[in-house]
UniProtKB/TrEMBL annotation:
<dbReference type="Pfam" id="PF25376">
    <property type="entry name" value="Pre-PUA_NSUN2"/>
</dbReference>
<dbReference type="InterPro" id="IPR057285">
    <property type="entry name" value="Pre-PUA_NSUN2"/>
</dbReference>
<dbReference type="InterPro" id="IPR029063">
    <property type="entry name" value="SAM-dependent_MTases_sf"/>
</dbReference>
<feature type="compositionally biased region" description="Acidic residues">
    <location>
        <begin position="531"/>
        <end position="542"/>
    </location>
</feature>
<feature type="domain" description="SAM-dependent MTase RsmB/NOP-type">
    <location>
        <begin position="67"/>
        <end position="458"/>
    </location>
</feature>
<feature type="binding site">
    <location>
        <position position="301"/>
    </location>
    <ligand>
        <name>S-adenosyl-L-methionine</name>
    </ligand>
</feature>
<dbReference type="InterPro" id="IPR001678">
    <property type="entry name" value="MeTrfase_RsmB-F_NOP2_dom"/>
</dbReference>
<feature type="compositionally biased region" description="Gly residues">
    <location>
        <begin position="7"/>
        <end position="25"/>
    </location>
</feature>
<feature type="binding site">
    <location>
        <begin position="186"/>
        <end position="192"/>
    </location>
    <ligand>
        <name>S-adenosyl-L-methionine</name>
    </ligand>
</feature>
<feature type="compositionally biased region" description="Low complexity">
    <location>
        <begin position="476"/>
        <end position="491"/>
    </location>
</feature>
<dbReference type="Pfam" id="PF01189">
    <property type="entry name" value="Methyltr_RsmB-F"/>
</dbReference>
<feature type="compositionally biased region" description="Low complexity">
    <location>
        <begin position="518"/>
        <end position="530"/>
    </location>
</feature>
<keyword id="KW-0489">Methyltransferase</keyword>
<dbReference type="InterPro" id="IPR023270">
    <property type="entry name" value="RCMT_NCL1"/>
</dbReference>
<dbReference type="InterPro" id="IPR018314">
    <property type="entry name" value="RsmB/NOL1/NOP2-like_CS"/>
</dbReference>
<keyword id="KW-0819">tRNA processing</keyword>
<feature type="region of interest" description="Disordered">
    <location>
        <begin position="260"/>
        <end position="287"/>
    </location>
</feature>
Length: 988
C-alpha cells in the first residue's frame, strides 16, 4: 500500500497473541504508520496464502478477485457508541445531523470523492458507524477535520469505542443478561469485554448493581493491565480481571474455608510423644466443600493466526504461513473444551476467531461437538441480525502441512508434518450442522474477516471427555503469550505422548486441578506460601500498570494526593488552599523564596508532604507567571524551588507510604533541627529525612485477603507482582464515609469496599459487586489470579489549611453507583451554572473575589484576581451550609426532565433497601433456551452505569472556591451534551 492510501485514522488494535490493541489518542495512527509505511502494494501478496484459500473453497470463485482486492485496501474507521439511552442517542443524533448529513450525495473535495459515512445496519440502535476518509481528504476538508476531532474526543472521553465492525459481532450473539455469570476466556485488550459489561448492566438503574458478573481473563499479564485500563470506562463493580491460561482456568475452588468449632472442654490429655502425629485437631481447618465454577455465558475469542485482520495489519502478508494456524489448533481446541466444561447446562458459549482458516474454525468446533457427545449443540442463529451478511460454515476442508495438502487423516497419519487428527474433516464431522457456523468475509461489508459459532450446553459433558491423561499441554501452550518459564516447564513435565493428537487433552485434568487445589489448601492451612500457579513473572506493576517505584506515582501517594489528579486537583489546591484568588498571587510571591520545612508544630510526614506538594505547585505557578512576564531570573529561581519542593514531596510521601511514623520535626534535638535548606538542597535533605529512623507502623491487618502479594501483604502472597484485594475495615474511615456523605447503613460499604494495597491510608477505595465478592470468598485457597477488580468510588484527598472532615473524595467514575444513596453534601445547580462549572472548572466564591483588588498587580507584575466567580444566589445559599470538602453538583429533577437527562435519584431509606435488594438477587438458573441472539431490530443490548448516569459532577468546596473534580475530556463531553440540549430547548 502506498502512503497516499492510508486512512485518516489508521487501524485499531491488533489481534492475536502478540499484537496489542491501541486505543486512545493518536497511538492508533502511529501504530498504523509503523506497520504500513514499509509495505507496498506489491508486498500484499502471499502465494501460500492464495493457494491455501483457493483450495478451501470458502470464497465463492466469482468473488475471489473482490476478496483479494478488499484485503489489500485499508480498513475503514469503525466505531460504536458506548452504552444506551439519552447520552448515546444524543451522540448518534449529533453525529448524524451536525456532521454526516453534510456529507450526503456525491460529494467531492478537490476532485477526490468522499465516501459517505455508513451506519452498520445490523448494530442495535444505529450506534455503529463506518467512516472512510483518506488522510489527504482530512487535511483539505474542515468538516472532515471536525468529524475527526469529534470522534477522537468522544473516544478519549469514553463515549464511543473504536472497534472493527465484525469484532463487535460475537458479544451480540452471546445474549448476555444482567444475572449472567460471564467468562471472557481470552479477553485482552478488552473490546468485547466492554460490550459484555454493557450488556450485563443493560437496564440497571443508577445505584443498582446487576446480580451477574464478568470475569475477563487473559494469559498475558501485561495485556491484562491493558484490559483493566480499557474497561475502566464502563464503570462496573461487576468485573474481575484474571490471568490464567484459559485452558486451565480454575474449574474448582476450595470453597470457603471453615474452622471447626472448638471441642467440648475435657481433661487435658498428655502431650503426644514426639514423632507421633496428633489426631486431627479440632482447631485444624476442615477441608471445605469443593466449589465448581460454572458460567452462564462464555466467550472463547481465541488467539488465532489472524489473517482476517490483514487489512488492519498488512504485515501479516509477509508473515503468513501454513504453520501458524496448524500450530494454534491444539490450543484453540483445549480452550474450547475447557470452556465447555466451565459452561453451565443451558448456558451459551461463543467460539470466535479472526481467521478464515477452517483448521482453526470449523475443525475446532466439529471436534469440540464430537468430544462432547451431544452435550453441546450448535445453535442456528441465521434469523438473528439478518442484515449482517455471512457465509455458512463448511463441512469439508483441506489440511496442509509445509509439503502438501491431505484429504483425510488416513492419508496424513504417517507422513503428515505436525498434523493432528482433530484438524481433519471426517464423515462424523460432515454430519454435524456445521453450516450454522458463520464466516464474515471482508468484501461483503467492507470489514475484516471473522468466524463465529454459537453453542449451547444441553447436558453435562460425558465423563470420558476428561478421562484421559492430560498429555497435550504442549509447546503451543508453553509458548502462549504471557506464559512464564514456570508454566512452560510445568507444562512440559506433564509431557506429550506420541499419540496425543496434540490436544491438551486432558487430563488428569480433574486430578490435576484437585491436586492443585488440595496442595494450595494444605499450604494455606499451614500458613505457608505456595506458588501453586505460574510463579513470578517478574513484573512489578500495580493495577494501573504503573511502576511501583515510579517517583511521580509515589509523590501523590502519601502526600495528600496533591499532584495526583492534575486536571481536577491542581485547581482545587490552587483555590482552596488558604485565601482564593488573592492568595494565588501572594503565594506566588513567596514561592520564589526557598520553602521552610520546620514551620509549625507537630508537622507529620503527611502534612509535610502535602505542604511540599502545594509549595511545588505555587512555585511552578510563580515560575510560569515570571516566564510569561519575561522575568527569566525569577522564573529560574521559582522553577528550581518547584523542583526541589516536588522532590521533597516525593521523598516524604515515600516515607509515609513505607509506614514510618516520623517524629514531629521539632522533636529533634535543637542542634539537629531542620535548617532551612538552601535552594537546590531540599531534595538532599528530603532524602536524608526519608531514611531517618522512625517507628515502623507495620502493614494493616484485614480479616481476609485475596490474590496478589504486592503492596504490603504480610505473608508475601502467591503472586508477588499483583496487588492484593482486601476489605477496608478501618471503622473510623468507614464511619466518616457513612456520616459525611449521609449514606444509609444498609449500603454495604462495610462489606464491599476494598483496597488494592494494605496501607493504613489506602489511596483508592473500590466497590465490588456482591457476586464478585462471593466468587472471591469461595476461593479460599486463592487459586484465581486476580489482576484487578472493583469500581473506584473514593479517592484519598487532603488539602492543607482546610478543615477536611472526610479524607476521601468521591470519584466521578463511581458516582453513578453511590449517588442515589448520598443524602448529604449534594446541591442542585441550574444548567447555566453547571455549564459555567464545566467550562471554567473553578469558580471563585464572592468573598474571595472581593478580596482581590482589581487592577492591582502582583510583585512579579501579574494581574491579581480576574478569575470566574460564582454569583448564582441559589447555588451560593445551597453551598453555604455544606462542609468544606467534597460534594456533588447535580441538575434538579425538573431541569433534568426538561433537558431529557436521567433524573438524579436520592433514594429514601425504603427505596435504598429495595435498590440494594434488587442488586443482589440470586441469579436464576434457567437460561433462555430460545435459539436467538440479542440484537434484533430496535432491541437494546447495551447499557451500563456510566451510560445511564444522571447529570451530576463531583466537586470540591474550598474556603474560596468551588471546583469540579472531573477530567478535562469528560468535562468537554458533558458540556457539549448539556449545551446542545439547552440550545434545543430554547429553540423549541
Ligand atoms: C484474539 S485476542 C482477544 C481479543 C479480545 N477478545 C478482544 O476483543 O479485545 C487473543 C488473546 O488471547 C490471549 N491468549 C493467548 N493464549 C492464551 C491462553 N492460552 N489463554 C488465555 N488467553 C490467551 C492473548 O494474550 C490475546 O490477548
Amino acid at each position: 500500500m502506498g502512503r497516499g492510501q492510508k486512512r485518516g485514522w489508521g487501524g485499531g488494535g491488533g489481534r492475536g497473541g502478540g499484537r496489542g490493541g491501541g486505543r486512545g489518542g493518536d497511538s492508533w495512527r502511529q501504530d498504523k504508520r509503523s506497520k504500513t509505511d514499509f509495505i507496498t502494494r506489491d508486498d500484499m501478496r502471499n502465494a501460500a496464502f492464495e493457494e491455501y484459500y483457493r483450495a478451501q473453497d470458502i470464497i465463492p470463485a466469482d468473488e475471489w478477485g473482490d476478496f483479494l482486492a478488499t484485503l489489500r485496501r485499508p480498513l475503514p474507521v469503525t466505531f460504536r457508541i458506548n452504552g444506551s439511552g439519552k447520552f448515546a442517542d444524543h451522540l448518534r443524533d449529533k453525529l448524524q445531523q451536525d456532521f454526516f448529513a453534510k456529507l450526503c450525495g456525491n460529494l467531492t473535495i478537490e476532485g477526490e470523492a468522499v465516501t459517505p459515512p455508513r451506519q452498520l445496519p445490523w448494530y442495535p440502535n444505529g450506534y455503529a458507524w463506518q467512516l472512510e476518509f483518506s488522510r489527504n481528504l482530512l487535511r483539505k476538508s474542515p468538516i472532515l477535520a471536525a468529524i475527526h476531532d469529534f470522534v477522537k474526543h468522544a473516544n478519549d472521553a469514553g463515549s464511543i469505542s473504536r472497534q472493527e465492525a465484525v469484532s463487535m459481532v460475537p458479544p451480540l450473539f452471546l445474549d448476555v443478561q444482567p444475572h449472567h455469570r460471564v467468562l471472557d476466556m481470552c479477553a485482552a485488550p478488552g473490546s468485547k469485554t466492554f460490550q459484555l459489561l454493557e450488556a450485563l448492566h443493560s437496564g440497571s438503574r443508577p445505584g443498582q448493581t446487576p446480580p451477574g458478573f464478568v470475569v475477563a481473563n487473559d494469559a498475558d499479564f501485561m495485556r491484562c493491565n491493558l484490559l483493566t485500563h480499557q474497561t475502566k470506562r464502563v464503570c462496573s463493580p461487576c468485573l474481575m480481571v484474571s490471568n490464567h491460561d484459559a485452558s486451565r482456568f480454575p474449574a474448582y475452588l476450595a470453597g470457603a474455608l471453615q474452622i471447626s468449632p472448638p471441642p467440648p472442654a475435657e481433661p487435658a490429655e498428655p502431650a503426644a510423644p514426639k514423632g507421633v502425629a496428633s489426631a486431627p485437631g479440632a482447631s485444624e481447618p476442615r477441608r471445605p466443600h469443593r466449589y465448581q465454577v460454572r458460567f452462564d455465558r462464555i466467550l472463547a475469542d481465541v488467539p488465532c493466526s489472524g489473517d482476517g485482520t490483514l487489512r488492519k495489519s498488512p504485515d501479516i502478508w509477509r508473515k503468513w504461513n501454513i504453520n501458524g494456524g496448524n500450530s494454534l489448533h491444539p490450543m484453540q481446541l483445549r480452550i474450547a473444551l475447557h470452556g465447555a466444561k466451565l459452561l453451565e447446562v443451558g448456558g451459551r458459549m461463543v467460539y470466535s476467531t479472526c481467521t478464515f482458516n477452517p483448521v482453526e474454525d470449523e475443525a475446532v468446533v466439529a471436534e469440540l461437538l464430537l468430544r462432547c457427545g451431544g452435550a453441546l449443540e450448535l445453535l442456528d442463529v441465521s434469523e438473528c441480525m439478518p442484515q449482517l451478511r455471512r457465509m455458512a460454515g463448511k463441512h469439508q476442508w483441506k489440511v496442509k502441512d509445509k509439503h502438501r495438502f491431505y484429504g483425510s487423516w488416513e492419508e496424513a497419519r504417517v507422513i503428515g508434518y505436525k498434523l493432528e487428527e482433530s484438524m481433519f474433516p471426517s464423515p462424523a464431522k460432515a454430519a454435524l450442522p456445521l453450516e450454522r457456523c458463520m464466516r464474515f468475509l471482508p468484501h461483503h461489508g467492507d470489514t475484516g474477516g471473522f468466524f463465529v459459532a454459537v453453542l449451547r450446553k444441553v447436558s453435562e459433558l460425558p465423563v470420558e471427555v476428561f478421562k484421559h491423561a492430560r498429555r497435550g499441554v504442549t509447546e503451543a501452550s508453553a509458548a502462549a503469550p504471557g506464559s512464564t518459564p514456570a508454566t512452560a516447564a510445568a507444562s512440559r513435565t506433564i509431557g506429550t505422548g506420541p499419540d496425543t493428537n496434540g490436544l491438551a487433552e486432558p487430563i488428569a485434568e480433574e486430578d490435576a486441578e484437585e491436586d492443585e487445589a488440595a496442595a494450595a489448601m494444605a499450604a494455606c492451612a499451614a500458613a505457608g506460601v505456595a506458588d501453586a500457579e505460574d510463579g513470578d513473572q517478574g513484573e512489578v506493576s500495580d493495577a494501573d500498570g504503573k511502576d511501583e517505584a515510579e517517583p511521580e506515582a509515589n509523590a501523590a501517594d502519601g502526600g495528600g494526593e496533591v499532584g495526583e489528579d492534575v486536571d481536577g486537583m491542581a485547581g482545587v489546591v490552587e483555590r482552596t488552599a488558604a485565601t482564593g484568588a488573592a492568595d494565588h498571587d501572594s503565594r506566588a510571591a513567596v514561592a520564589e523564596e526557598p520553602v521552610s520545612w520546620d514551620s509549625g508544630p507537630n508537622l507529620t510526614p503527611l502534612e509535610a508532604a502535602r505542604a511540599a506538594a502545594e509549595a511545588a505547585i505555587a512555585a511552578a505557578e510563580s515560575a510560569l507567571a515570571a516566564y510569561e512576564a519575561g522575568d527569566l531570573d525569577s522564573a529560574l529561581r521559582a522553577s528550581k524551588n518547584a523542583d526541589a519542593s516536588a522532590r521533597r514531596a516525593v521523598a516524604v510521601a515515600h516515607r509515609e507510604k513505607a509506614g514510618f511514623r516520623a517524629r514531629p520535626f521539632q522533636d529533634k534535638p535543637r542542634g539537629q533541627q531542620q535548617q532551612r535548606p538552601r535552594v537546590g538542597e531540599e531534595a538532599q535533605v528530603a532524602e536524608e529525612e526519608a531514611t531517618a529512623d522512625g517507628e515502623q507502623a507495620g502493614p494493616v491487618q484485614t480479616s481476609w485477603i485475596r490474590g496478589g502479594g504486592g503492596r504490603g501483604r504480610p505473608d508475601g502472597g502467591k503472586y508477588s507482582y499483583i496487588d492484593p484485594v482486601a476489605p477496608l475495615e478501618d471503622d473510623s474511615v468507614l464511619s466518616i464515609l457513612y456520616d459525611y456523605y449521609g449514606i444509609p447503613p444498609d449500603f454495604p460499604l462495610r462489606s464491599q469496599l476494598v483496597m488494592r494495597a494494605l496501607d493504613r491510608h489506602p489511596k483508592r477505595l473500590y466497590f465490588v459487586a456482591r457476586s464478585v465478592l462471593d466468587l472471591m470468598m469461595q476461593d479460599s485457597t486463592e487459586v484465581i489470579k486476580i489482576v484487578s477488580t472493583g469500581l473506584k468510588v473514593f479517592e484519598r484527598q487532603l488539602v492543607r489549611d482546610q478543615v477536611n472532615e472526610c479524607p476521601y473524595r468521591l470519584s466521578q467514575e463511581g458516582l453513578p453507583l453511590v449517588l442515589p444513596y448520598i443524602t448529604r453534601q449534594r446541591i442542585e445547580v441550574p444548567p447555566q451554572v453547571l455549564v459555567q462549572l464545566l467550562r471554567d472548572r473553578n469558580l471563585i466564591l464572592p468573598a474571595a473575589a472581593a478580596a482581590a483588588v482589581v487592577g492591582e498587580t502582583t510583585p512579579s507584575g501579574n494581574p491579581r484576581g480576574n478569575k470566574p466567580t460564582l454569583t448564582d444566589e441559589s447555588v451560593l445559599s445551597a453551598l453555604a451550609p455544606l462542609k468544606l470538602g467534597c460534594l456533588v453538583c447535580e441538575l434538579s429533577a425538573s431541569d433534568a426532565h426538561q433537558l431529557g437527562f436521567a433524573a438524579s435519584v436520592r433514594a429514601s431509606p425504603e427505596e435504598a433497601k429495595a435498590l440494594l435488594a434488587s442488586s443482589s438477587v440470586t441469579a436464576p438458573q434457567a437460561v433462555p433456551t430460545k435459539a436467538t441472539a440479542n440484537g434484533g431490530d430496535g432491541e437494546e443490548v447495551t447499557g451500563g452505569l456510566a451510560a445511564n448516569a444522571p447529570f451530576a459532577v463531583v466537586a470540591w468546596k474550598g474556603p474560596a472556591s468551588l471546583a469540579i473534580m472531573v477530567e478535562k475530556a469528560e468535562c468537554a463531553q458533558m458540556l457539549d451534551k448539556l449545551e446542545s440540549e439547552m440550545k434545543k430547548l430554547s429553540t423549541c
